[in-house]
Design brief:
Elements (H helix, E strand, L loop, with lengths): L7 H8 L6 H12 L8 E4 L7 H8 L3 E5 L2 H4 L8 E5 L12 E7 L8 H11 E10 L18 H8 L3 H10 L3 E2 L4 E3 L7 H8 L12 H17 L10 E7 L4
Parallel strand pairs: 1-2, 1-4, 2-3, 4-5
Antiparallel strand pairs: 5-8, 6-8, 7-8
Bound molecules: S-adenosylmethionine.
Length: 251
């Protein structure tokens, strides 16, 4: 398990900052899939430093609850009049039954100690007909991330950290949620040149790096730095981001 209170909280804000147009892309993607009524009450579960939390309040016009187990991540979350941040975890969400319309789970489920219990809790706090926007990778369909080439173990580390699609769907069903058959894919921007990518990735704000040995990290970052210096403007391909939509049935 990765504890964001240990090191990642120090580098997350800079190393995972959203490019300017990315927040808008994500809010458009969730608006297309959310219930149409307004305002909506939103749960941002595993909200971290609140990268998306205030934007969810602006987008849906209702209260947003940011729930996060890491105190040090939560301390950095931006205040917003419609947002309440709560220390807690997926396995024990500090909200009442049927109190939310939409649950936003962005790159968090792979960190939960008990994903089935977490999804049961998500179902409990959702109203019937409520929607879960689950942004995750799937262990059996890992994208071709450009920096994997510098760290020979990284792809395998990530593939074992993320659950395969069928397993996510099976856990959702066990928890009483209905998952779509296939993920949807969102093209949100990431740094597009090799230099910008290196400057971001070298901060090691991805949990993958918590699982790699120091000598692999040293060798990989040295080679990555050399490549970025030699060809800083090289354009990187856009890697679509997977989202699985889950629903709590209406009755
Ligand atoms: C990659 S970060 C994503 C944070 C935020 N959703 C974002 O996109 O910026 C993963 C987050 O999940 C949190 N997390 C870890 N275990 C959790 C659990 N059991 N329940 C809820 N969140 C958890 C971590 O503390 C961390 O803040």
């Amino acid at each position: 398990m990765v504890d964001y209170d240990e090191r990642l909280h120090q580098v997350y804000a800079e190393g995972r900052a959203l490019p300017a147009d990315s927040l808008g892309t994500w809010m458009r993607a969730v608006t297309d899939l959310a219930p149409i009524e307004r305002p909506l009450t939103v749960l941002d579960l595993g909200c971290g430093i609140g990268r998306f939390t205030p934007a969810l309040a602006e987008t849906f016009g209702g209260p947003v609850y940011g729930v996060e187990p890491s105190t040090r991540m939560l301390q950095q979350a931006p205040e917003h009049p419609a947002v309440t941040y709560l220390e807690g975890s997926a396995e024990s969400i500090p909200l009442a039954d049927e109190s939310c319309d939409l649950a936003w789970l962005f790159l968090t489920i792979h960190h939960w100690a008990d994903p089935l219990q977490g999804l049961r809790e998500v179902r409990r706090v959702l109203r019937p007909g409520g929607v879960v926007f689950l942004r995750t990778q799937f262990g059996d369909r890992m994208p071709d991330i450009y920096w994997y080439r510098y760290f020979p173990s990284a792809r395998q580390v990530d593939a074992s950290m993320y659950l395969p699609l069928d397993e996510v769907r099976a856990l959702a069903a066990q928890a009483g949620l209905v998952a779509e058959e296939q993920p949807r894919w969102v093209e949100a921007s990431e740094p597009r040149t090799l230099r910008a990518a290196y400057e971001r990735v070298k901060l090691r704000a991805f949990s993958t790096f918590e699982h790699l040995a120091e000598d692999e990290l040293d060798r990989g970052f040295a080679e990555f730095e050399r490549d970025a210096a030699a060809d800083p403007e090289r354009e990187l391909p856009v890697v679509p981001a997977g989202v699985l939509l889950l629903r709590r049935p209406s009755s």
